Amino acid sequence: MTIEITTRHPIGAQVRGVRVGPLDPTVVAHLRALLAVHGVLVLPGQRVDDEDFVRFLQSFGELVFTTGETPVPHAPLLNVITNVGRTRAPRSSFHVDTSYLRCPPAYTALRAVTVPECGGHTLFTNQFNAYDTLPRDVQARIRQRVVTHVVTGLDLDEGAETSAQHPLVLRHPLSGRTALYLSTRQRCREVSGMAPEAAAELIDELLTHSTRPDNVFRHQWQPDDVVIWDNRCVMHKADHDGVVGDRVMHRGTVVDRAAWR
Fold first, then answer.
1. Quick one: a GO biological-process term for this protein (predicted)?
2. CA-CA distance, 84 to 257, in Å (whole number)?
């Protein structure tokens, strides 16, 4: 198998030569390493079904369903993301998936089921670069901070996890690089050692810094695309402005407990 890699800026890479489906462990190790460096991998031309998609994700670890989301019929470990039947466009802010869990997913992937005629792109930030480009005094000020993440926008059953604490500055267990670990303003409820107003100001500043245009890769979906990314070094959001036509994605998340630190 020959794997061809074309890098994107400021984060991401296109990968050819890998078919979405069950993967050999050596291929998985290679893709993990690529994700730890590039953050986002775009696999084009994947004419596969949900069974193949599920087996692909299970090659990376435990595939888990996000409680409160809408499951895909006949593929209950996946959830559907769609604008079909909605009277108003969905809303999205830069975030990482289910950061309110003690062990959030290391990886998230989307399979393009229906691509709109126009718009519907997905945006990704480089959280390695976001940290590296902070002033040294800011890096020192936040290095030991811990953020309390809370659930928002989901109706969870009693007893479900709704809050977790994670370091604001995260060292990736595979690449060893340092990244800012953030989510939406609403989810980042508290910052250790800071008053609420100061904490909110800090999160706002770090989100603005992380999502500046030169730190964002915009993926324009094509039919049969599969995209997988590493939540430990990437934030993402869907751009729902100006979408023309149906947009349907099937999404899966992988909890890689051995690789999460």
1. sulfur compound metabolic process
2. 34
The verdict on 69 and 143 lying in the same domain is no
Q: State pLDDT tens for residues 60-107.
A: 999 999 988 999 999 999 999 999 988 777 778 999 999 999 999 999
**CATH (domain of 54):** 3.60.130.10
User: Which regions of 31-162 does DSSP assign to beta strands (E)?
Assistant: 40-43, 62-64, 71-72, 75-82, 107-114, 122-125, 146-150
Q: In the prediction, which pLDDT does 80 show?
A: 96
Q: Give the separation between CA 57 and CA 48, rounded to whole angstroms.
A: 13
* Structural domain containing residue 74: 4-90+101-125+217-255
Q: Kindly state whether residues 13 and 113 are assigned to the same domain.
A: yes
The answer to whether residues 159 and 223 belong to one domain is no
Give the whole-angstrom CA distance, residue 208 versus residue 65.
30
Q: Tell me, what DSSP letter sits at residue 229?
A: E
Are 154 and 34 in the same domain?
no
Residue 28: which of 133, 127, 139, 107 has the closest Cα? 107
For residues 214-243, give the mean pLDDT: 97
**Residues whose CB is less than 8 angstroms from the CB of residue 251 and which lie 6 or more positions away in sequence, other chains included:** 69, 78, 79, 80, 81, 108, 109, 110, 111
Q: Is residue 96 part of a domain?
A: no
